Amino acid sequence: MGALIGIFFSSMVIGLSGAMMPGPMLSVAVTEAYKKGFWSGPLLVVGHAIPEFILAVLFTVGLNSVLDNKTVVGVIGVAGGMFLVWIAARIFIDVHQGIALDLTEKREVDWGPVVAGIWVSVSNPGWIIWWATIGAGYILVSLEHGIIGLVFFYTGHILADFLWYSAVSFVVSRGRGRISDRVYHIVLYACGLLVAVFAGYFVVDGVLTLLRA
């Protein structure tokens, strides 16, 4: 059970570190919250979760056949770890430069929040790269515990998006356009530290797996 909790918690932290960084999904969330209120945030994540679930299933089916290939598993682990290193470094640099969260920036969409969540996900090139590296690495780790491991991974990952975008839509729908920079920086910095720890685990485990290949 401890390993499953670790998968869930680390997946949620890494998901939160990505969700909190400004990008197209945040802009759409702000726009929808201004127009339609609080529930647009959770509904946006429902849309986001649909292609993520499909991609997770496809990766699971494909990766299940390479579990015994230590070279492939090791390469995926190192690649995922290095991508996490990049994410952690980006967080630290942005916090050091005083990144601020702008909850007034809007991005108009012609669809409802669910469809918008699907489109923003599949149209983002970084999305597939994330799944091909970090996501693939997590799926391989999760598969060691069977389906329940995958459930813990996916639940933690999606819960991070639900928590963050629900908070954003709540703040915006209540007429506030700002979250304290200090609080934002503290949470981001904590996420960055944890991501760096998980990155080290992925890289070390990947290297050790390659040495055993």
List the helices and strands and how they pair.
Elements lengths: L1 H18 L4 H13 L3 H25 L5 H27 L16 H10 L2 H19 L3 H27 L7 H32 L1
Helix pairs in contact: 1-7, 1-8, 2-5, 2-7, 3-5, 3-6, 3-7, 4-6, 4-8, 6-7
Question: Keyphrases for this structure?
Answer:
single chain, 213 residues, mainly alpha, 8 helices, globular
- How many individual β-strands? 0
Approximately how much helix is present in the residues? over 70%
Q: How large is the count of helical segments?
A: 8
The major sheet is characterized as: none
Strand content: under 5%
> What is the typical, i.e. mean, pLDDT?
88
Please give the alpha-carbon distance between the first and last residues: 28 Å
SSE class: mainly alpha
